[in-house]
Automatic annotation (TrEMBL), chains A, B:
Entry keyword set: DNA-binding, Plasmid, Transcription, Transcription regulation
RNA-binding among keywords: no
GO molecular function terms listed in the Swiss-Prot or TrEMBL record: DNA-binding transcription factor activity; transcription cis-regulatory region binding
Domain HTH lacI-type as annotated: residue spans: 16-70
Listed name of the protein: Transcriptional regulator, LacI family
InterPro entries: HTH_LacI (IPR000843), LacI/GalR-like_sensor (IPR046335), Lambda_DNA-bd_dom_sf (IPR010982), Peripla_BP_I (IPR028082)
Superkingdom, taxonomy of origin: Bacteria
Pfam families xref list: LacI, Peripla_BP_3
Gene3D superfamilies: 3.40.50.2300, lambda repressor-like DNA-binding domains
Xref: CDD domains: HTH_LacI, PBP1_GntR
Keyword field contains Chloroplast: no
DNA sequence: CTGAAAGCGCTTACAG
DNA sequence: CTGAAAGCGCTTACAG
């Protein structure tokens, strides 16, 4: 327990409250509260006195009390599966930065792949009366029920589910998969090998890829699957599987840039040239995609835009203005680089 | 705004409170509160009735109110510079998981390298009356003052500063640097090239390295520096600098595994063999270190242990039991692999 | 532009 | 083991 050793006020140990500021400034607590939340509504001279009193006391508002009284917590929960090796990393980074800049506190929850952990985190978020929950996983009936009963805005990001509980900000994974297939075809590759993670979205991209591939009547393809989170290190096994194939693929389509990076490293270690002997496509356009040698062809998703749209939706809801649309499609962009 | 469409109770829109549960269970709110916070103190029969009432109403405690009344928020702030490409990633992952498992909510703040952002985040944390702040950056006088006046436990992790404000859980970066130097010497390398990030801890490791290196009278070395956060992509420039050196180094000592990975990729792309032509040492032992080809010699820091020690300190403080020691040294371990 | 006062939903001595 | 009641520190109609 730290004590205020250099308090220039009465040497009490408890934190200064609105009351302390109010009496020091010679105004009511209501006025101080107004000043703190919306400085422009108090007279300039009053504001001046309050500002001084706050500085003198070192007052820091108690948002537990404020949230209880106003039933606005100014807190948003961000729930993602993992922090490490995650394809969401850039999106989450942008999300947390933008939320903080907007004066919102971020509660971070790591769901892993466990449904019970997800439910605990949702419950914790609702206990804090968060203004919104930003969610990236599959929604269980339990979760749906809890969330529907609460006033928190439920924002599913990175994806566009058919029937979002609140709103969804993301893109069509199936369309992204098709786009990759068309790219692969346009470059003249004939024997793709798909590496698909076991998550539902990766499966949707696979569906999109396969649909577009077969629509062109483009012959057979092979595939492997990896556990989530898909990591660099999975590449070793994947590459071994590829080598055992009766016929080598000419392009490996990976579910993440880390995986793509791993496959490239393995291929080079085996003495192959990328893309001449074997091409590689990633997903997510993480920073390494543009920095690897060779640079990695990937699908860019604008994580910062997802973050901004989510935040705009939260704001609109707080303002009680136009109800947000249910789906916000931020699209994606295939970036062709050296690896394919 | 979602409404409870399938409420099996009176169809009011507001969330059920302790009062609702209490009257339904035929007990006082005090008893329900006790049950929620410490089930074992209420009689079994009473507990049963309360449990049913909670289930029937879908009650979720309001921790804003609870925290205000008890002045325990059960929330901990975790403040780190970045989420992406961060050397702390494994530690943070472990930290968040362990805190959540202990029923504590994690407030995440990204400080970047901005002092004003750091101060805003500390202020936000104190506004929420967090039980503890887990911090990884340099402490400004402003931050120190705010923190000293608050009852929150201030935990500096990843490092062992001389005079921690609260407690510190980490290891000696200088000792780690020396250990790397001794390793490099023991392997017979003669011309190291250091790549040091501009952060203070990286500088401490550099100091440790240089001290041990020169103590052995081991000749000259060269060096480069990189911006923080140090990333895979910095390697390209670093490698170009190395190639311009009058004499090639025989080992490159990097400030992070990502950087080491990048240097290896560049070296291989230039037709060099690692470690035969040029060896590489990383730092942090992130998952890629063991998965890269060649696998990367690195310094392991037990992030999960840092997390557990920090959490144990928070618990001890809450229990008002033995005051925690000021420094907890979790050490480090050099892991020799293929790259050096 | 400002104040008096009720109320937000809990916790916790105190008493029994 | 349980209850009545005060109090945590704010916000916000309402009135002026």
């Amino acid at each position: 327990m730290n004590h205020a050793t250099d308090a220039d006020e009465a040497a009490d140990t408890r934190a200064p409250t609105l009351d302390d500021v109010a009496s020091r400034a010679g105004v009511s607590t209501a006025t101080v509260s107004r000043f703190v939340n919306n400085p422009s509504v108090v007279a300039a001279a009053t504001a001046e006195r309050i500002r001084d009193a706050i500085a003198a006391t070192g007052y820091i508002p108690n948002l537990l009390a404020g949230g209880l009284a106003s039933s606005k917590s100014k807190m948003v929960a961000v729930l993602i599966p993992y922090l490490t090796d995650s394809i969401f990393n850039d999106t989450i980074q942008a999300m947390v930065e933008e939320l903080s800049a907007a004066g919102t506190t971020v509660m971070l929850g790591l769901t892993g792949v466990s449904e019970s952990r997800t439910e605990d985190l949702i419950r914790a978020a609702l206990s804090r009366r968060v203004d919104a929950i930003i969610f990236t996983g599959p929604v269980t009936p339990q979760v749906e029920q809890m969330v529907r009963r609460s006033p928190a805005l439920f924002i599913q990001v990175w994806d566009l589910p058919e029937d979002p509980i609140g709103i969804a900000v993301g893109f069509s994974h199936e369309a992204a998969g098709s786009a990759v297939a068309r790219f692969v075809i346009s470059r003249g590759y004939r024997r793709p090998h798909l590496v698909t993670a076991k998550g539902s979205r990766a499966q949707m991209r696979r569906t999109g890829f396969v649909g577009a591939w077969e629509a062109e009547g483009s012959g057979p393809f092979t595939e492997s699957s990896v556990e989530v989170p898909s990591r660099f290190g999975h590449a070793r096994r994947i590459f071994a599987e590829i080598r055992r194939l009766p016929e080598m693929p000419d392009v490996v389509v990976c579910g993440s840039d880390h995986l793509a990076q791993g496959v490239i490293v393995e291929a080079l270690a085996a003495g192959l040239k990328v893309p001449e002997d074997i091409a590689v496509v990633g997903f997510g356009n993480s920073s390494i995609a543009g920095e690897m040698r060779p640079t990695i062809t990937s699908v860019e998703v604008d994580g910062a835009r997802i973050a901004r749209e989510a935040i705009a939706a939260i704001r609109r809801k707080a303002d009680k203005s136009t109800p947000p649309e249910r789906w916000i499609d931020v699209g994606f962009r295939l970036i062709a680089r050296e690896s394919a």
